[in-house]
Amino acid sequence: MLSRFTFLGGRRRTGGRRPGENEAVFVDLYGPGLLLVVLAIVVLNFLDAWFTTLFLSMGGQELNPIVDHVLGWGSAPFALLKSLGIGLCVIMLTMTKGFRIARLGLGVILGGYALLLGWHLFLLTHVAE
Fold it and tell me: CB 34: neighbour CB atoms within 10 A?
């Protein structure tokens, strides 16, 4: 899964070693489309953390008891743990992008964060009224 080519490049971008191996293989290089998905997830994760702390400062309430407990430690530990958690998940899914379930996982995370951002924007417009 990890090799010197993972960080230095110089190997396969798609497919396996033998003809016909195109699915469920590990590859050493990642394309610009995957980079765009990963960056979008990271940005949406930071926006979610920012909106969460913003709404809490305006008198909102966190409904997730685990997140509420972590927020009790402060905003910085919350943002760090949130970023670390999603970061590790995205790294693992990126490294296993040759597997259909990993690509599905990245899509679900991206879609979930997009919906969550929509919810935050909806709340923001209704709080401003």
Answer: 15
Q: What CA–CA distance (Å, rounded) separates 75 from 52?
A: 10
- Is the pTM higher than 0.85? no
Tally of structural domains, the chain:
2
Same domain, 117 and 89: yes
Closest of 63, 59, 49, 60 to residue 113, by C-alpha: 49
Instruction: Give the pLDDT confidence of 40-65 residue by residue, as tens digits.
Output: 999 999 999 999 999 999 988 898 99
Distance CA 40, CA 46 (A): 10
The domain in which residue 108 lies consists of 31-127
C-alpha to C-alpha distance for 106 and 114, rounded to whole angstroms:
12
State whether residue 68 is helix, strand or coil: helix
